[in-house]
Hints:
Blueprint: E1 2-4, E2 7-9, E3 35-40, E4 45-50, E5 59-62, H1 64-68, E6 77-80, H2 92-106
Parallel strand pairs: 4-6
Antiparallel strand pairs: 1-2, 3-4, 3-5
Amino acid sequence: MGESRRGPVKSAVPSNVVSPVRRCSRTACGRPAVATLTYVYADSTAVLGPLATYAEPHCYDLCAEHSERLTAPRGWEVVRLSDGSGPARPSGDDLEALANAVREAARPPERALEPGGPAGEPRRHLRVLRSPES
């Protein structure tokens, strides 16, 4: 550490006791952080996303409770980014696309006729072409 006139200076918290777990930035909250909050002042936006890979000086780490209750100042927008680890809820478009796919799979296959071919003969996609004999 260092020395003063009275002797060696002791740290209030020993350096080998620093927790590797990042904690919530809110005052008096010691819960583990699960999300990172960043303010984009130019756009009046608060962005709440997955926990950043390392602590940034202008970002705030929040626990699950504080990230769920987060509100932005009046006139600001909160953008919540998903980390993809939880189950995603299907949207109306997703459900409609799934219903259409099920209907399509249940529909009997249509028999396309080849132009000029006999009626009832299925369309053939591959043909044997013989090379002209030289």
